[in-house]
Structures
1.
Amino acid sequence: MASLQASNFLLSSSSSSNQIHAAISIPKLPSVRFSVPKLRQPTIQSEELNRKDGLINTIPIQNDVHSTPLVQQTSSVSMATFQLCAVLEAIADRVEMHKNIGEQRDNWNTLLLNSINMITLTAATMAGVAAATGVGAGVSVMGLKLASSVMFSAATGMLVLMNKIQPSQLVEEQRNATRLFKQLQSQIKTLLAVGSPCQDDVNDAMEKVLALDKAYPLPLLGVMLDKFPASLEPAVWWPTKQSPNSNKALNNNNGWTKELEMEMREVVEVIKRKDCEDYERLGNKALNMNKVLATSGPLLTGIAALGSAFMVSSNSPWAATVAVVAGALASAVNTFEHGGQVGMVFEMYRNNAGFFKHMQESIESTLDECDVEKKENGELFEMKVALQLGRSLSELRDVAKKSSYSRIEGSPMDEFASKLF
């Protein structure tokens, strides 16, 4: 029994000693070596950091703080590309200006039309009430007569100004200017995307921008287009001398054949005989109508103002009748002229005639170019003409054939070149 207790005592003491040793002993951690990279001298790999869109900027580092850094720029992009980008920015600004001013002048047309009609009808109503009240009303009738006369006079002055500037025609000018500037913007973007522009392209783009500025001026005083010319003159928004577009020749003839040249000449004849003459005829009719309406409106309000003035000095019923009838007719004429936007119709015909004149000159200048390589590619040019006239290639060739047959047989051409308008 004593031996068992002794053995237990030894076992317990040995286990406790092991536990104490395990609690106190700390294992050795493995040694970890940290490698610190050596610092390099600050260098700038400019050709790797600044390479973007074909531009390589080399910026040398100078140790002297007070010295001015020298920036050298070598570029694979030509200067003509940068200049065309600047032209694009100017065109985008003009598009926004014409759009905003067009909206403003559209508001002019609506507000002036409503205001003048309200003034005219109110003055006519006052004149009628004053005539119906009679002499016994005294001072109140005299006030109505004076107010009617003043309002008719104000309506006459406002109507003269409105007929002079023709707000609806101004709005149509800004619409066409916006469309043409967007068209030019698209052409330049296409040139930058698929071609290699040169200085001639830059000069041509600037001439087109200036020609559009001249054809559709923004200010009213001094440079406003004549709203009542002697006859319709087609709008001209392109430079007088156009440089032909140079495209890479697809074959020895650059896509041109004798048949294609004859086809284009026949298309020009159809445009001259049918489209241009028709739009000039319609434009002259719209111009004459606008002249008559622009003269009749202020004349009628002036007659109404005189009739109202005679009502003040005498109690003649004829004066009141003239004032009321003339005022009502003036409102009707004013509504038909500016509500119907007769000036806008005339401007639309003028621009359509200019469109056909532009096509005619463009085709003729291309055909008259002696150097085949300087011409626009024939197949591409034919497709552009067909799209501008709203026709397919087969329809365009049929029109040319019909024109040729009609000239040979001496019969009139019964078809227009354009199917768009």
2.
Amino acid sequence: MATLTSSSSLLLSSSSFNLLPLSHSSISRLSFSSSFHSSSSLSILPHSSVSSRRFGTHHVAFTTIASASQKKKVLIVNTNTGGHAIIGFYFAKELLASGHAVTILTVGEEGSDKMKKPPFSSFSEIVSAGGSTVWGNPAEVGSVVGGQTFDVVLDNNGKDLEAVRPVIDWAKSSGAKQFLFISSAGIYKLTDELPHVEGDAVKADAGHVGVEKYIAETFESWSVFRPQYMIGSGNNKDCEEWFFDRIVRDRPVPIPGSGLQLTNISHARDLSSLLTLAVEKPEAANHSIFNSVSDRAVTLNGIAKLCAQAAGRPVNIVNYDPKAVGVDAKKAFPFRTQHFYAEPRAAKTKLGWRATTNLPEDLKERFEEYIKIGRDKKPIKFDLDDKILEALKVPVPV
């Protein structure tokens, strides 16, 4: 049975993270019922002072004026696992800060062990900001949300048409005006010409491709977002942590290949700001695919160096040939081992979006959280590392 938690009052003071053209002239207090629709009336009361609320380590004061004709009712269908889980959390926070009504439907059960971990353990922030949280099966989305209807629906869960079709069909039949989908830049075909840009060839057998095609056939107003690797408070997929684990223990950091391969890491706040722009500028975002990435690439060796810089410690990088040492690089390393990066061309040209990702600073935030949860003291197994280092005759500190 789905659990619904909601709040009927939202105080918008300041929050979010280097927003684009989303700020307005004054801080307002918005009061609305939990059955808020875009046509509902709002009472707007002046708020005399501007305050800022911490989100991660970024402080931005901004203001919001609510207009009944501008504000949308948005449903976010959110995955309960992996690196994409923080997308729904950041997006919900940003939408609420901009005066929209938000319900976030998370796959699974509210009382499960997964919900005790970030970002789900911070969902109270969504409720306290005026949003609603529900849990259940996306295939039964209509009953999970109790028959509510929405202006905009985002699917941040399914990776193939079987998983997403029920959400698309329900959204269409219930009268949603706009459908947004979190796809993946991983569907691009390998190419000699980089970075990947919107319109480049994709893998025909990739599950996300079938979803993108069905959405375009079903909705008049739609947008697709293709993120890569993400960073941000509450992320529960090991990426930068993999490097921290080795750096804080003075262990060598084994990186496959030359280490000069380029990839792309973006802060989740950038994707949430891009999604919010699509909600607020549907005409500009319509029928568009957006690479949801930072506008700067980083080398694999560079990630290790930046993580060491964030930790204030030295780093010993060991580059190796996976075949020569007999390991599967996919199991031994958290990133793809070839060049893999895209350019956010459509986001900039169609929506006027700009990236705010700053890896040196963002990694400091992540390292602070790494220390806070005590992971630097936890026992970590390095079996594959030891196999690699033994084959290379690289000594490991005891």
3.
Amino acid sequence: MALDAPVERRDEVQIAMGNGNGVAPSQPSRPAGRPTAAAAAAPYADRRLRLNPNADHKPEDYSDVRGEYAPAVYSALERHLPPSLIDADRDVKLHFMRDILARYWPQGERNKVQRHREYRQRILHLYKPLHEELYNMHPSVFFLPTFLEAVRSNTEECFRSIMTEPIPGVYSFAMLQPTFCEMLLEEVENFEKWVHAMKFKIMRPNTMNKYGAVLDDFGLEAMLNQFMEQFIAPISKVLYPEVGGGTLDSHHAFIVEYGKDRDVELGFHVDDSEVTLNVCLGKQFFGGELYFRGIRCENHVNSETQHEEMYDYTHIPGWAVLHHGRHRHGARATSSGLRINLLLWCRSSVFREMKKYQKDFPSWCGECQREKRERQSQCVKATKMAFLRGSGGAAI
């Protein structure tokens, strides 16, 4: 089973600690005058990260820090700082953590991110948008009134009033205005023609799709970040709290294209997201149904599907399907026409960090829960058998 991955993975840095400790590289000698963050951090260069996080420590706010890592990465890593450094100035801690991250993030990955950043900057400098109004959030132009009213009410009752839930964790609802769908389709087509004319190499959405485009690459990142924060996060906070639905802080947004001269179908896989929004933009098509086969953790991603987990979803232009990123799914062949969908992979760096320390079975994995119920059943049976044997012995 394939695991989709985005082109850029700046919010998923894995900190390799070996035996649980990472050592910061040596710092330059302290210059005269006011000490820099590098100089101030030098006395701590031989300190090791804590194996277990300091649960009682409240990390600094790094929301203003820009760069290769999401702010939540620094907040999470700060809990692992050595006791001698944890109460130091924020700049000192930030410098120390950046050194740690730079040391354990492979140079090849850093180069890849840098190349993608340069590619994106070049496009943003040269590409002239077709529909300028797409690049700023206009809720009444983008969304249907029923969807807007539900989000503004911000209650589970209102969310569920506009949705259907055919199987647990999969929600379908009318979302986008037809004019927005048309504008976005025209913008993507315009961008693809421009890329071809400029002889650029277009970055595809992931390893499984050979057609489509990453929307963030040509200027829609800020608008789509608002899209996630203001309209998806409130719903996810209510419907997906167990996977960080209330702490979504980054996204990967892209268009996929299916048809006779495009990708025809999509294999069985899970998404690199906590929550996935999939909206059909059009055009005219037959086939292309999504099939769902149960939510699974990493340990059970290839386990069998239970009958009650099977569901096929038929796309309708303007309608969205919202689901858990680890919900196994695929797309059947689009037999005719052209189907184009907007995908928004929503992620939580906090959830991903905390997941590393999870000791119990995930409450959201269908197979984990099935195994848990089976163990409980076996335990009850064993207890009954022991009781019966004890009762029989007493009677004799």
